[in-house]
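sry for the spam today, last one i promise. struct tokens for design, 186 residues
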């Protein structure tokens, strides 16, 4: 059964980076937030399906392959993981990384999600973290945490802490053969 929007007394203010919701009571605010999150998630799924050129999947987006993420076929555990993967792919493409490199970064993210199953509050934090980690693995076109933080509207300290978690969880090393397209220079 699908939730239908109900009249909520309050305001919604949209900016480039934030959505501000006000309501007359805390209970209405909580209900409105849940309803909006649900609807925004549906919109994200529909937009992703359109981008992929297929209809919606019943039961959500648990085994989605956004645009096949340039040829990779992953069964994602959460829709937010897909959103991060798409952001990583788009971000690396914008930085001039090849499709093969983008696949390596998405695989890194998929392996991390499969192992840790992180809770996602801000997809931008994880996208910036994966991009940072991957640029460190490749040791090419290095981009620093502050620059990524500015691009993604997140704190560099958050990227730093998530980066450490990612490295520890996957035991990442420079030119890691599981993800990197580069070989160490002898």
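last one done:
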């Amino acid at each position: 059964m699908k939730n239908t929007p109900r009249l909520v007394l309050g305001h919604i203010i949209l900016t480039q980076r934030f959505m501000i919701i006000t309501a007359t009571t805390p209970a209405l605010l909580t209900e409105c937030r849940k309803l909006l999150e649900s609807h925004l998630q549906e919109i994200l799924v529909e937009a992703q399906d359109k981008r992929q050129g297929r209809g919606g999947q019943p039961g959500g987006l648990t085994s989605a392959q956004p645009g096949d993420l340039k040829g990779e076929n992953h069964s994602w555990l959460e829709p937010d993981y897909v959103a991060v993967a798409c952001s990583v792919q788009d971000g690396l493409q914008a930085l001039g990384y090849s499709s093969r490199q983008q696949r390596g970064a998405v695989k890194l993210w998929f392996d991390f999600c499969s192992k840790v199953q992180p809770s996602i509050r801000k997809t931008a934090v994880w996208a910036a973290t994966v991009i940072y980690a991957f640029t460190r693995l490749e040791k090419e076109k290095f981009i620093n945490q502050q620059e990524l933080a500015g691009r993604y509207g997140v704190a560099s300290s958050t990227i730093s802490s998530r980066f450490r978690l990612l490295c520890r969880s996957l035991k990442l090393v420079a030119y890691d053969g599981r993800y990197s397209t580069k070989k160490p220079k002898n």
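Helices lie at 26-52, 79-94, 99-116, 123-138, 145-152, 156-170. ok im logging off now
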